[in-house]
# Entry
Amino acid sequence: MSAPVNVTVLRRPLLYTTLGVLLLAFTAPLLWAVSGSFKRRGDIFGYPPKLIPSPATLANFRSLLTEQPFGRWFLMSAVVALLATVVSVFVCALAGYGFAKFRFAGKRFLFGVMFSSLSIPFAVILVPLFVILVKTGLGSPWFALIVPWVAPAFGIFMMQQYIVQSVPDEILEAARIDGASEFGIFRRVVLPLLRPSLGALGVWQFLQSYNSFLWPLVLVSDSSQYTLPLGLQTLFRAENRQYDLVLAGSVLAVLPAVLVFVLLRKQLLEGLSTGAVKG
Amino acid sequence: MTSTSLRARPVRVTETAATDGRKRRAPLHPYLFIAPFYVLYVLFMLVPIAVAIWLSLCEWVGLGTPHWVGLRNYQHLLTDASFHRALGNTGIYVLVSLLVIVPAALFVAQAINARGVRARDLWRTAYFVPIVVSPIVVALIFGLIFDQQFGLLNSLLRALFGTGSVDWLGDPTLSKVAISLVMVWRWTGYLTIFFLAGLQNVPRELYEAAAIDGAGRVRTFVTVTLPSLKPVTAFVAVTSFIGAAQIFDEPYLLTGGGPAEATLSVAMFIYRAAFERQQFGYAAAAGVVLFVVVFTLSRIFNRLLGIGRTQ
# Structure
């Protein structure tokens, strides 16, 4: 990261005001939700709106955890997202390594095919994929929420860029001279070197799966297999909108995602932009 | 040394294939590394697209055998006012994302990157948070913010201007504005990350040269910053184009596509046709149209802006 350069669009006080206003704009809705989750139902829409709840109550969280299957929704989402993440990080690293470090016939074409899959809108395959999986009996959430999404072109591109930049050929040559197998080199030499970008891709994949809505909405009909977004939707769509529960549920649902992000944010933010900058 | 053949040298792939005959090892392992991707790609991308094209030529309610109708679904789409509205609205979402969100992200990145700004990491992280939050949660929170009677936004308007009972989600024009605002909120910080990385990669010398030439802020921006950001801008533009072209969550959750289809998107149109009315063939046809439009336009973008080359 180079030092910031001598170019300023705004003067200092104006600059900080702008950054501050933006900060408020980007975080206020979430802060308001957090505050609302501690309010009694009647107070959520109190006028004027209060940021600090008084009286503050944990009742929303309590009834969410005891009267609603919140724990089950969360578990479903978390397990699905973790499985999808582990498999997809591995598949992307494999393919990224293949493209970054080998010459082979048809590479240019195959890379182009992979890259162009970025511009296939999901809405196109929504209907046929649903039909195929249901008709072949593979429509179980444990398969269909995970497997079709474990090889995103974006992830492969990100891995390829990272490997080109940070895995020197000499190490691979040395391992080959030592007689290591090609897969052995990948597993024992390359994968450890990729750790930072595997983390970045992993966080990204986790968030994608954990937050996905349309596909589970279409696929999961059995309410005992609802993921978090589907569960929250039932609270939202209920006869008398349970705003208090909805807000508490939202806060609890977002918590793990934000936690994972905050812990690994450096890697994620840098990893995401590697491909774009050099692309 | 045979090992040199495994190295990625800047030699055309086709040439090596021709001269490789005398070498012992016809390397299979490169293909094994990329094979898992292509297996998944064929099964969950190519096959579905083929099925989509076939289904789009059929009438099918999801039970029994699909009934071949040729191009009739496409003919219906040509005259379906709902589909036209969905296309128009999606076009608006795409324009908002290209003409509002992308420039806003560039502006925010410039502000964070300005000389002497402290706590750069804090700003960057905070602005990114919206994209981490699940779309359903975003929709829930903004649904409450936009509420006509109790919403936070109208409360603020009342406090500031004395009046405020704007029907954000119930008015055909304002509901589009509301959806667009949510898109801006969700995507700006995400795209900022890419511009920020791009800005940090602009060679300092270019700015110094511009300063020596006596270039002002605007001219430095136009002659140095923008050209250096071309690859990033290309990436960001294509990504947000594809993202906006298939927008579903926001209109589905916030407005249900209403009022009177004023916020209906193409993805929502497809969802409704297939899963609310069981018109699977018709939904597939709409999907194929979306695919052709998005794929063609993004190929053109790629060609014009030159992204996606191997190295």
